[in-house]
Amino acid sequence: MDKSGANLAALQAINAERETPIKVRQVKYLNNIVEQDHRAIKRIIKPMMGFKDFRCARIILSGIEVMHMIRKGQMKDHGLTRTAAAQFYSLVA
Prior knowledge:
Mean pLDDT: 76
Number of helices: 4
Structural class: mainly alpha
Shape: extended
Strand content: under 5%
């Protein structure tokens, strides 16, 4: 049995125990999709020329990624219609 068969069997075993099953979506060109999504983030970071320490980098990258997700409409807002800025500030409060 190959690796994907073993992974599928493990996923089926986990789904048997769960109330809501885990669905796996296979994308042929997943790396291209991920790279395309991070293109905007890379463009923002390039002028910074690196970070002083890991903690600072993690905080700044988290904020940039969250703002990018809000702009793309990927953040669930429980049916409320708010601007991107209002969504971002609601996370801080």
